[in-house]
Amino acid sequence: MINTLRFKALAFVLIAMSVIACQKDANVAGSNSGEEMLCTIEVLAPELNITRLDGDTQSGKNSAYGAIDYADDKFWAENDVRYTFEVYDASESYSNAKLVKARMVNILPEYASTRFELRLIPDRKYLFVVFADFVKEGSSANDDQATIGKHHTLGETLADIRVKEDGINDESCDAYFLAKEYVVGPNFLQKMTLTRPYAKLRLIASDLTEMNSNRHPKAIRVTYEKATPKSFSALNGKIAAYGTENESFVSQFVDNIKDNVDKHYYNEGYDALTENGKHTHLTLFTDYILAISEEQTPIHFKVDIYEDEAMTQLIKTTEFDTEIPIQRNHLTTVIGNVHTTGSDIVIDINDNFENPEYVVSMWDGISVEEPEIDAEGNLSISNGEQLAWFANDVNSGTDYRHKSVTLTKDINLGGAMWTPIGEGSKFAFDGDFDGAGHTISNFAVSTESGAGLFGFVGFGSIKNVTVKGATIETHHYGGALAGYVQNPGTSNSAERITEISNCHAKSIVVTVTPDANLDNGDKAGGLIGYTVRANVSGCRVSNAKITAYRDCGGLIGHANSDTTVSNCSVSNSDVVADQSVEYCEAGKEANADAIVGRKHSNLDLSTSAATGVNVTVIPAE
Rounded to an integer, what distance in angstroms lies between the CA atom of residue 427 and that of residue 455? Predict the structure, then answer.
C-alpha cells in the first residue's frame, strides 16, 4: 500500500515505442496486408510532486481534494483502482459503436501504472476509451467486479456507465475518463490526461464555535430538489439518464464533532481552521454529481442538521434555493453560517480539478512578490503576492497616476485580512486598474475608515473586475470594491471624473458600525461606500448584505455631487439601516435604499434596477 500519496488527480499517459509499441507479430504478414500488429498500451500514473503552502506534500483528509489526493492507508485498505479500456473503429458512429476488441479490465491494489496488450491494424484510426473508478479491495477482473464497481455498473460498452450507488462524504465515488482518437503506427507518442465526468460539491459550516456547547452536529440529510444524472457515456461524455426528484442522502458524524474535528472524515484544509484553539469550520458534506456538460449548471438543495444519529432533534434546516453552480471537473465550495441563524453564505466555484497537474494557490496573508513591470511603469498582476506588493506600493506613496495595473489571472486571497489599496486620502490610488474579467475572492477588511479591496481612490479608473466572498468592516466608508472614491479635480480639470465600469460584487458582507467618538457609522455600499465626481456604469451587486447606521445602499452608500449611475443592478441582497445601536448623534436620517442610499439631488437612476432586494430600517430604541 502507499504510505504517502504525492499524486494530483489521475493523469494518464499513453506513449509509443517504450510505452505504446506496435510491433509486427512474427507470424503475421507486413502492415500493407492489413494484418494486425501487437500493441502494448501502458497507462501511467506519474508522481507529480504536488506541494502545499507549508512545503509538505499533501497528507489527505482535505475536502477540496479528489479521491487520489484524499486517499490514505485506510482508503487503500478498502478500495482498489479499476481501469477499463476499450477500442473502437473511429470510422463508426459512436452512438452505436461496437468494440474492435474485447473490453480489457485491470484492477490494482493502489494508484500505479498498468499495461494493456492487444493487436491492431496499423495506419488506421481508432477511438481509445479509458474509464477509471474504484472497486472493493481484493476484487478481481475475473469476477463480477469487471462490470460492477463500488459506485458504477458498466454496460456492454463504456457508452453505458450507470451510477448504482450514490453517497455523500465518500471519496470512492470519484471517477475519471477520456475518449480520444489515434492513428496507430510506429513511433507513436501521445499524452492522455483523464478528466472527471463529475462535479464536486462541498458545504462548509463556518460557525462551529458559535454553537451552544451542548449541541453538536451528529447527522445530516442532504436533499436535492431536482433529479440528478445517473448514467453517462464515456465515448462522448453525454448524460443518458436521471434519477428521481427530491432525492436525499444521509451521513452520520462521530460523537462530539465540535470538539473532535480531527476524527471527522476531513480534518485538513478548512477543517483545520481554528480560533483561540477551537475549530471554527466543519465540512458538512461533499458529493460527486454527474455534470450535464462542461458549462455551469445550477442546482438547489436542502440540508437538515441533527444533534442525534436517529435524526429526531433538528438543529437547523438551510435551504439553498439560489442557483448554486456546478460544473464538470470543477469544485464548488459553499461556505457560511449553516448551524446558527443569520446565514451569510459565500459560494465559490473554482477549477482545482480542471487541470490535474495544477494547484490553485491561495495567498498566505503575508508574502509579497514584485509583479511584472514594463518600461512605462505599468503592472501585470497574476497572484495574491503580487497584489499585496501593489497595495504596499500604493500605501507607501506611489499613486500610479497615468499608469495601468492589469490582472492576468483570478486571485484567491485565502480568507486573509487585506489592507486596502490606498489606506487614506494621502495615499489614494490614482491610476487605471483593469481586472480584465478576472475575480479577486475571499478576503476580509477591518479598518477605521475606507474599507474595501481599494480604500481611497482618486483620479483614474477601475474596470472589469469581480470581487467575491469579501467581508468588509469599518466605521466609515465601506464597500466591496472601494470605500471612498472622490476625484480631486475641479471644474476646470481635464480629468475631473473617475470611471468605475463593469465591476461586480458577489456574495459579500459590508458592515459599517458607529464609533461613539465620531460622527460616522455611515456610507456603506455593496460596491462603493462613498462617491464624488464619479461615473459608475455597468456594475452589478448580488447576494450581498449591507448594514450601517445610515447612508447605506445595495450599490453605493452615498452618491455625492457629480456622481452618475447608469445600467447598474442589485439583486438578491439585504440593505439594513440599524439605528438601534448606541450613537453619539441620534436622529440622523437612515437614507437606506436598494441601489443608492443617500443621493445628491440630480442623481438619475432610471437605467438601473434592483430585484429581490430587502431594505430594512431598525429604528432607535
Answer: 9
377-427 pLDDT, tens digit per residue, is 999 999 899 999 999 999 999 999 999 999 998 887 867 789 999 987 778
* β-bridge partners, 128: 87, 180
Q: Which of 164, 181, 197 is the last residue of a domain?
A: 197
The total domain count for the chain is 3
Select the more confidently predicted residue: 279 or 608.
Answer: 608
Asked whether 446 and 419 are in contact (CB, 8 A), the reply is: no
> Is residue 376 a part of any domain in this protein?
no
- Residue among 210, 335, 337 nearest 279 (CA): 210
Nearest to 428 by CA among 403, 395, 461, 451: 395
Q: Are 69 and 111 in contact (CB under 8 A)?
A: no
Query: Strand 198-205 relative to strand 282-290: parallel, antiparallel, unpaired?
Result: antiparallel
307-314 long-range contacts, CB within 8 A, separation 24+: 307/215, 307/216, 307/217, 307/218, 308/218, 308/219, 309/218, 309/219, 309/252, 310/219, 311/219, 311/221, 311/250
Contact by Cβ (8 Å): 357, 48 = yes
Please give the Cα distance from 221 to 510 (Å, whole number).
32
Let me know: does 577 contact 549? Beta carbons within 8 Å.
yes
Instruction: Please return the burial class of 198, using the count of CB atoms within 10 Å of its CB with bins 0-12, 13-18 and 19+.
Output: buried
Cα distance between residue 114 and residue 441, in whole Å:
40
Of 193-197, 286-290, 338-342, the one with minimum mean pLDDT is 338-342
What is the Cα–Cα distance from 235 to 94, expressed in whole angstroms? 7
Cell numbers that stand for 454 in this block: 481599494
Q: What is the pLDDT of residues 526-580, one digit of tens each?
A: 999 999 999 999 999 998 999 999 999 999 999 999 999 999 999 989 999 998 8
| pTM, entire model | 0.54
Q: Supply 160's cell numbers.
A: 453505458
Grid coordinates of 379: 503592472
CATH classification of the domain holding 290:
2.60.40.2630
Nearest Cα to 540, choosing from 587, 492, 501? Answer: 501
Residue 610 sits in a domain whose CATH number is 2.160.20.110
**Angle of CA points 11, 327, 153, to nearest 5°:** 65
CA neighbours closer than 13 Å in the CB half-sphere of residue 301: 25
Same domain, 118 and 206: no
Q: For strands 278-279 and 372-373, give the pairing.
A: unpaired
For residues 65 and 269, give the distance between their C-alpha atoms in angstroms, rounded to a whole number.
10
CA angle 607, 612, 618 (to 5 degrees): 105
On the CB side of 362, CA atoms within 13 Å amount to: 17
Return d(Cα 283, Cα 267) in angstroms, integer.
9
Q: Is residue 446 part of a domain?
A: yes
Strand partners for 302: 223, 319
> Given the DSSP bridges, would you call strands 161-163 and 152-154 parallel, antiparallel or unpaired?
antiparallel
Instruction: Let me know whether 434 and 566 are in one domain.
Output: yes
Angle at 574 between CA 569 and CA 577, to 5 degrees: 115
